């Protein structure tokens, strides 16, 4: 079977949706030249009106997309840098997200916000290395963080077809993941449905995005000592509560590895949900960025504040 | 047309006066930003629009919504948070919308709607329609970067949008002279957008200027900026009725109120015609108030209905 990279899966999903639905268009900075490669070839194929290169005006073009969505379009915005989501938090959380309720259901805002390269990009320092999916889950914006090329394709297609705003985080550390795939089998993946990436009996590790691959590697490494189940929620909000509970009820133990800052982060929510529904045989653990972390530049410092395989391994061994 | 414009300004004036009474009596919770004194702008702009055009409005938005043809009973019910309101009681004074009339919502974040209207107008053109968007904002919005970014996008892409700045002299309590360096129209011209200052107290002058701007937009020539000078006769928000802020002198308020759009337009009608319109408006608003007061309150169990397009 042919190989498909995560990055190419995003490109393929965009192309397929542009082809399928004339209401879809992509806008963002440097997308004509495809600086991030996500839109490679799309301008030549679909033209300037459907691959709309924008000036550096994130707040205006994010609202511009909302306005276009209000009259029937399905815009997809590419943000080159995850921290730009802080700049447009008002336009997503306070505008796009609120229109449906505030108008009594008179309108829909089907905008997809894609961040190809979220989290640390290795060496891009404090203002280019955030991973703010927990923030969007907190305000109730649909939020996905796919781990694999198939899920990247399937969730991007679903996000574009969804009638609400969806933020799509493509972790920088996952963009190079390549899988053998039957392209004909690529299909939409529903929001709010997780997957068991590896079945196990002794402990559930919940991981998102690139950390799913780290969790799988650690599970392999520990295979002789414990049976680790890796649960990938895929969608941060709405969370697959049933899938999470099913896994933890089976294993009785929980570790969450989460590329968010610790306080009020995604891992805290997973622990709370599990505490409300399950009886654990050991206290649950979190492997996260530290409280209030800002990623420092120097490589050793950058790595020191990101959750990784070593911390997960240590945490799992401590639990055994 | 004279009579129509008069009916609109009179309707807005009397609607606002009744709404202020309902704030005082407690039927409207949270207060309103009265449009009293600025009616000529909404009336003139909306009279220049066609059925397929769209508008966006502001926190001081009742006038825009009424001028665009929204049902006064449903707007009043919305201010009272009733199920029969335009937004089913989920939006209130600052978010009134009626998508069936192209009213894409009033927006409570100053300067936000300009870019939303620009996107809507661009998209409608992409869909092959000849729709134009008119977007209202105040002088205070001229200091919001997001709006200046929208001017740039609209000018770059020749978007059929009319930017309507209602310069009532104050951003809440901040005078324009203390807030805006350079000039308001100069900012639009910097983006290559034709910009004009119009007497916002005269509905016919606003209509004339907007008609030119709309024709230009429909002809594919892009955005126009209209600075409509006006004066807010009442409070920034009804909370001022209790706090008695002193940022405007009595003399200034008296002078400002001396040019009243309702009087300016009313003087163009015969006394008999004017009386007939006044009676018609009173009767309409009396019925509207009755309908609103008689409407059901929403069920608290449905507080988060419409949060998403479907079940999640």
From TrEMBL, chain A:
Task: Tell me the GO molecular function terms.
Answer: magnesium ion binding; oxidoreductase activity
What span is annotated as the signal peptide, if there is one?
Answer: none
Which PANTHER family does the annotation name? PYRUVATE DEHYDROGENASE E1 COMPONENT BETA SUBUNIT, PYRUVATE DEHYDROGENASE E1 COMPONENT SUBUNIT BETA
Q: Which cofactor does it need?
A: thiamine diphosphate
Give the Transketolase-like pyrimidine-binding domain ranges: 4-177
List, alphabetically, the InterPro entries matched. Answer: THDP-binding (IPR029061), Transketo_C/PFOR_II (IPR009014), Transketolase-like_Pyr-bd (IPR005475), Transketolase_C (IPR033248)
**Entry protein name:** Alpha-ketoacid dehydrogenase subunit beta
Q: Which SMART domains match?
A: Transket_pyr (SM00861)
Instruction: Cite the Pfam families for this sequence.
Output: Transket_pyr, Transketolase_C
What keyword terms does UniProt attach to this protein?
Oxidoreductase, Thiamine pyrophosphate
Please give the SUPFAM superfamilies that the UniProt record associates with this protein: Thiamin diphosphate-binding fold (THDP-binding) (SSF52518), TK C-terminal domain-like (SSF52922)
UniProtKB/TrEMBL annotation, chain B:
MF terms from GO for this chain are: magnesium ion binding; pyruvate dehydrogenase (acetyl-transferring) activity
InterPro entries linked: DH_E1, PDH_E1_Alpha_Subunit, THDP-binding
Q: What Gene Ontology terms for biological process does this UniProt record contain?
A: pyruvate decarboxylation to acetyl-CoA
Entry keywords, A to Z: Oxidoreductase, Thiamine pyrophosphate
The residue range of the signal peptide is none
Q: Is Magnesium there in the keyword field? A: no
- Where's the Dehydrogenase E1 component domain? 9-273
Q: Which Pfam families match?
A: E1_dh
Q: Which cofactor does it need?
A: thiamine diphosphate
What PANTHER family does the annotation carry? PYRUVATE DEHYDROGENASE E1 COMPONENT SUBUNIT ALPHA, PYRUVATE DEHYDROGENASE E1 COMPONENT, ALPHA SUBUNIT BACTERIAL AND ORGANELLAR
Put simply, this protein is called Thiamine pyrophosphate-dependent dehydrogenase E1 component subunit alpha
